[in-house]
Design brief:
The protein has 373 residues and is α/β, with parallel strands linked by helices. Helices cover 50% and strands 17% of the residues. The strands form two sheets. Strands 3-2-1-4-5-6-7 form a seven-stranded parallel β-sheet, sandwiched between helices. Strands 10-9-8-11-12-13 form a six-stranded parallel β-sheet, sandwiched between helices. Helix 1 crosses helix 17.
Amino acid sequence: MKYYLIAGEASGDLHGSNLMKGLLEEDPGAEFRFWGGAMMEAVGGVKVRDYKDTAVMGFSDVVRKLGRISRNLKDCKGDILAWKPDVVIPVDYPGFNMKIAEFCHNQGIKVFYYIAPKTWASRERRNRKLKAWVDRLFIVFPFEIPYFTAKGIPFIYKGNPLLDAVDGHVFKRPVEGKYIAILPGSRKAEISHTMPNAMKMADSLHSMPGYSDYLFLVAGAPSRSADDYSRYLEGRPYVKILFNRTYDILGYAEAALVNSGTASLEAALTGTPQVVCWSTQLITAVLAKYVLRVLDHVKYISLGNLILDRMAFRELIQFDFTPESVTSEIRRLVEDMEYRKRMKADYADIRSMLGNSGASRAVARAMKEELCK
């Protein structure tokens, strides 16, 4: 069968590649055409466009790139029509992929949406569109089961593909000695809001006798360049940046400061004691607080805490995210053995709730079964 996949971010490239591997196992004659990155390309098929050339980060970036986005949508639609796939598989990335889902539905092309838009956190109006345009929704979090059930949207849940990604990784120590991991996010705005406080934390800890020999390793996002971080690292020889080593960095870190997002769940799955931070412009923060107050089922901003429905690790949000608070929490993560033990016990519960590894192949099997009905 012919599968057309669309991933617009690094995480989509990762999950798309694992899904493609699963599809090949279930359907050895599978043909792929995709928008994605190097990981999907390594599996095989034809790459139409690299996600780094199509990604947009935030509202201002969308405004600047409206022309390019419009061209990409036109090109994608034309390519789908020309290739005539059996199914189009949007992978997350809802701003772009929801438009493609509508187009495919109108053209009579099956749509299997993989990794549902997070309508439980914002933009609930998309649920009506998901129900109308998507033939089958594939969700990846257990707390989404009651949510999408209540919304009347047909879905399939086979576990979370991050287990496949983490458990399938061959870990290699990135540096010698002890270090603190810093994962400031992939968007430029996230980096600019996280790195100043992270660097003040690094300065403060480096000045303490017990931490003077620690390194502070920044996990560079695949979609960013060294220039996005360089001004924060100047004059700090004890801070280093590494690209394409996120799991290695997490795997051997004494503790991690993580910008809220998929990385916080990755830290939980690698067993890394963490504190999550989130900070943005004041108006955005006010709007986000209003949205989350309206959606009263959303108690936390971190996926691990959402899965557990309790606080496994601290979330320092907006005004709570200060150099002092993050320094104090990192020290507690390193020094308080009982605190670390409780957190790792919660991590074990998160793993248990996500199910076993093998989600990517299970989803692939379910997709093939749906296509064969």
